[in-house]
Amino acid sequence: xxxxxxxxxxxxxxxxxxxxxxxxxxxxxxxxxxxxxxxxxxxxxxxxxxxxxxxxxxxxxxxxxxxxxxxxxxxxxxxxxxxxxxxxxxxxxxxxxxxxxxxxxxxxxxxxxxxxxxxxxxxxxxxxxxxxxxxxxxxxxxxxxxxxxxxxxxxxxxxxxxxxxxxxxxxxxxxxxxxxxxxxxxxxxxxxxxxxxxxxxxxxxxxxxxxxxxxxxxxxxxxxxxxxxxxxxxxxxxxxxxxxxxxxxxxxxxxxxxxxxxxxxxxxxxxxxxxxxxxxxxxxxxxxxxxxxxxxxxxxxxxxxxxxxxxxxxxxxxxxxxxxxxxxxxxxxxxxxxxxxxxxxxxxxxxxxxxxxxxxxxxxxxxxxxxxxxxxxxxxxxxxxxxxxxxxxxxxxxxxxxxxxxxxxxxxxxxxxxxxxxxxxxxxxxxxxxxxxxxxxxxxxxxxxxxxxxxxxxxxxxxxxxxxxxxxxxxxxxxxxxxxxxxxxxxxxxxxxxxxxxxxxxxxxxxxxxxxxxxxxxxxxxxxxxxxxxxxxxxxxxxxxxxxxxxxxxxxxxxxxxxxxxxxxxxxxxxxxxxxxxxxxxxxxxxxxxxxxxxxxxxxxxxxxxxxxxxxxxxxxxxxxxxxxxxxxxxxxxxxxxxxxxxxxxxxxxxxxxxxxxxxxxxxxxxxxxxxxxxxxxxxxxxxxxxxxxxxxxxxxxxxxxxxxxxxxxxxxxxxxxxxxxxxxxxxxxxxxxxxxxxxxxxxxxxxxxxxxxxxxxxxxxxxxxxxxxxxxxxxxxxxxxxxxxx
Length: 791
Hints:
9% strand; Amino acid/polyamine transporter I; 2 domains; Potassium transporter; alpha/beta; 57% helix; elongated; K_trans_C; ion transport
């Protein structure tokens, strides 16, 4: 740093002291933030408490599978005892291999700071390789406390895989398509889980009254579904405290009944724990309906993917404890007890669960089963909302209304539009099929596709993130496919028996997501290619007679660098700019959250007397815009803080001739300060111009009826003058300028592209929410700038 005279040191002593005070706590605060987002250590008592709470959120779907599994394995009845024992052996080892070994002890480790699901895996990959299809990331984004990634040696396998993935755009697109397939199929789970769980639980009414019509059971299920979806706007926080006791009571019930049935009916079923019976089961039924039986066995692990998707609510250790100590043993007892009952009562395989319950506790068991089915449905519906939110954040879904249902937990959300779509589809599936068998076929297809997608995504995760040896990776994928591939074949062979439902639903959502993402990428590319340089903007001053009008103009753009085309389009048609112009970019990063204190980056564009700034607001895929957030005030406060911070940084650079970018974190905001001198000025490294470049300088707004001053706030103005100037501009009025880019297909485009862009995307654009509504922009302060882009 250049040496200072004694007088300068004396005059600047207080400022230097303040600067040091600002610098000192920054490392400490950054350390606290990083520790905040590391995996926390929990005491044993707290882990047990969290494990208990996880029962109501994570395991409801998996726990209600005994309601319908055996009926779907033997839809045509049971021929002999060995078939039941073989099916039970398949269930036991499927539960052991998929939920216990694969998910609980392997896949759950592949979490994004505690977030699970397909999009969490994708965000991990996007941070470790440049595979994001919207390249709007900057090196400053990698300095976030939640932006964690690995480094690689040059010739390592991970480095080669990274280079291979980044080499061609088609590889990135294939990966995105794989993620969207898993996501869309998981949304199908949100439709089928309530349908089959509630219908199976409602079937208990008919067991005690054999003369009752099936339509009555369906009607009861539909009523329960309508009530369930109608209560969604209240959120799970209102009744969430009931979920864990209900599910715990459910597991105790099915485990106890299973143990009683083993002792009461036939304890010879315990030989099913010998895996040799799986081989015998395949040998006996290979020429008959082995694939039908496999599809039924697949239903015993439904809810496993939801276990991973709902990981965000609890630490991995809590879920592992709950599964190994309560869920897994109770499920084994339940299935073993049902098998013992079926061997003694083969004619009751259709409703074996309710038939096996002792008469003394039948109706209490029916109530608990119905409550558990509702809890299981609630968990899947909530996971569907979360999936839609993540897809929206990554530019893969139209903007829809998102409502917070809890002030304590920001992750609890409600999406009205999606809620009613799910309700309609659930009722259609329940009333259309009317039986568990066809819904079970559909359910199994959805579950196995999501599992296969997770298996394939785990391969790059293990190589890039975990840096696992290739032998371990090959072992994992071979063992996973050995189990999942036969189930996939079994489900695909049942497409004509109900398996087509999740495929149709997934295809519909896939088209929506892919078309929306495709047009979003094309819009971003248009913005990138048509952005204009600051030199061109500055040169327009004298030629068009630009006038700086009172107030602040927030210009919204998808670009984190450069001047958007909408701004040049705006001043060309209306040759005037506001006294203060702030380019605002709102972008989502492949992280689950951006801490509030690191959300905004602010920099100055041009010399001080231009009063032009850039503000980048960064969000993670779990972050939400709260209804009570004053986005306008947050932006303005960030600019004010930047000006104060910039003034404190002046005079302390290594050279007075060149600008020095620095980053500071204080007062709850992090900013990138880019200072510019009169002789050499640059913005984002794109532009150089001298102080002789002309533009009409911003003038001070009138105060208390005074006339506009003809003198500009010059380069030598103090920070107090600029802050006062900014406040007067805010009092004069704020205008939000939003670009309204309409995408159209070219005349020579194909029929498919025209249908997708001109009709499907245009319809979704009309139906989705505007950005102005999401950011709570007052309608009277909104100015839309329209333009058409042909692709």
